[in-house]
Amino acid sequence: MSGALLGFSIEITHLQVPFLNLMALITQRAGRVHVRVGGNSQENATLVSDLSNGKSIAKQSVDGGNPTDTPALLYTPEILYMLSNISGLVNTKWYLGVPLNDSSTFVVPSQNTIGNEPDLYARHGHRPATYSPYDYFGEFGQVVQAMQADVNTPVTNKLLAPSVATGDWTPEDVWNTNFIPAYMNNLAALTVEHYPNDNCAALYPGFGPPQDPQSVFPSYLTHASCKSIVAPYLNSSAIALAAGQPFVMFETNTASCGGFPGISDSFGAALWAVDYALQMGASDFSHALLHVGGQDVYYNPFTPPLTNQSKIHQWTIGPIFYSVLAVAETLGSSNHSQIIDLASNGDNDYTPGYAVYKNGTLARLALINFMTDPSGANDYTVTISVGGNALGQPSTTPSQIRLKYLLAPSVGEKFNITWAGQTFGGQFESDGRLRGAETMQTVDCDTTNNTCQVTVPAPGFALVFLSDGAFEESTPTSTHTFATTVTAAGEQKYSTTVDPSTLQTSNGHKGADGGHGSTSKGKHSGATAAGIYPSVVLLLAMLAGVGVLIRAVGNGWS
């Protein structure tokens, strides 16, 4: 297993330079990163040769029968060129989604996942109510036959399936159709998708009353939660291992339908994601892909600004992205890591721990504290002893260990988060690069008693490196980054200077020579032309903002 355990599942979209910086951070730690392009958007996407005005992607009308309101998409080969170019800059491995929602118009794919959540096709009206795993088995076979008959598709063994949501079917329902042996020569991995909860009732009718996020939050702050999410897949991961197939959690996150406000975008979710990922790693998952949605999604690891704000705002990095970095360093880049759940502290629900071995030798420890207590009373101290008389083994406890911490003041924190002392900053503040100097702690061990002590703050995550080699494998000496702004020499954008004497005597609606300012280059404000002065516009904007906020709260939680 490698540090590339966690990757991303993104919808078909444009990708910008900060994405390169974020992926570079991961590849420097894990060696590579896996990204799936698909999801709900793949089922309504069509590849076309070109689009008007040189566009590479265009949204079409929303299918009224689609419960997630996902618009149909048209995209050109430029999107594929973009993905290829990204891989040329950072070691990104792509999974491409192929639509299977309409069995009358199968598209012959070049590779990768066939269909998205086929167990929900009947529920979403894409198939008859009688649609079963055996029907999916047959349709998958039709795609394979079409590939084999296409001279332009020489590679027919890179398919991933079945990507069931464990909703109306279980993975075993698909395995029981003889799916794996029938398509063994065409499969590159076995895939499932799962969210432990959903916030759909807050967005769509027919899901019952909305859930209260504050009541739900505690369920994300226990080790039992992560074990219960993974438990239904233990049989399937064993089946995949026996078949020699990677087992991939192809789409997951805190909750479907965009997640919960105050949970999915919190430090608590970051700790949960670390525990969840390591639990999957200990249960023979090869990869797990965190889903990335649109602007109004709470669980996003990263969110670009709106297109019309991209010159004044930067990206927002969610707490869960810190989890990806922490997990990457926990497992390292060697691709020879093994991980076990220590059931530490009597399998305490709030203080889980994992041991990571490299080629059979203990290399790192991963320690989590889900509790929040600024007093320090619920910090806990771990005493580490490697080998020794108690185990009937020679002691190999090091004389010194190194630590990195994932920290925030509380599990409810959204932006004041650091990994090894570095941060991405607040909302709209990141270009995809970590800020600040990396910090780590060195702890001298008790060589007489062969013990080392590590304190895990409440809340927090501690990564313990038990050797210099383990530390050096996980810690990049440098990270190649990419420029996110280009400004011509002498050009100044998005700033203004006001003569203090003019400001002192002004009533606020006229500047020098009667001109008016604007936040858009080459344009003038239309406020005064419409007979509305800037001070009034500001007041109206504030009132409108309050109105929107009240409606959002009312629609979401009343």
UniProtKB/TrEMBL annotation:
Organism superkingdom: Eukaryota
Annotated region (Disordered), positions in chain: 493-525
GO molecular function: hydrolase activity
InterPro entries, A to Z: GH, GH79_Enzymes, GlcAase_C, Glyco_hydro_b
TM ranges: 532-553
Annotated ranges, domain Beta-glucuronidase C-terminal: 353-463
Record keywords, A-Z: Hydrolase, Membrane, Transmembrane, Transmembrane helix
Skewed-composition ranges (Polar residues): 493-508
Designated name of the protein: Glycoside hydrolase family 79 protein
Organism annotation: Laetiporus sulphureus 93-53
